[in-house]
Design brief:
By secondary structure, this protein is mostly helical. The chain contains seven helices and no strands. It is elongated.
């Protein structure tokens, strides 16, 4: 049997459930003694809270605040001007446009240079597996600048 959460039983006790959920919980409560006991506990808690004394302020707070409420002007936001919405995008829009333009310019410089040259095979040999005990994969590269011609 799937018992509801305590939050749902509390909402049932406070009459805060929708009619459909209330009907489903009523059906469940008729068959589940544990949930009926939780509902009785919530009812006892409600009764105990209602029996607590209400604190007295000693003065009427509403009477003190009422003159201030009437004297305060109502704040209304300024009317919206849809044609001014684009002004806020000026700085970011300019930065984006400059970024795209500089990317296109730098790309055209690279294309004008004839493309990227592939490295020579001797330089790539550095990535060959090194034999056990060896210090350099390509011996001609380890001797200095002799192999980089």
């Amino acid at each position: 049997m799937n018992c509801p959460l305590d939050d749902e039983i509390s909402a049932y006790a406070d009459d805060m459930l929708s009619p459909v959920a209330r009907q489903q919980l009523t059906t469940h409560l008729s068959a589940c003694p544990r949930c009926r006991q939780r509902l009785e506990e919530f009812g006892a808690l409600r009764h105990a809270l209602q029996q607590l004394p209400s604190p007295q302020l000693g003065f009427d707070l509403a009477a003190r605040l009422q003159p201030q409420w009437g004297a305060r002007p109502v704040h209304r936001p300024p009317p919206r001007r849809p044609w001014l919405n684009w002004v806020g995008w000026g700085g970011p829009g300019l930065a984006a446009a400059l970024s795209i333009a500089s990317g296109v310019w730098l790309g055209s410089l690279m294309l004008g240079a004839g493309g990227v040259a592939a490295p020579s095979a001797a330089i790539v040999r550095v990535f060959d597996p090194v034999p056990p005990g060896g210090l350099c994969a390509a011996v001609e590269l380890c001797r200095g600048s002799q192999g980089m011609q």
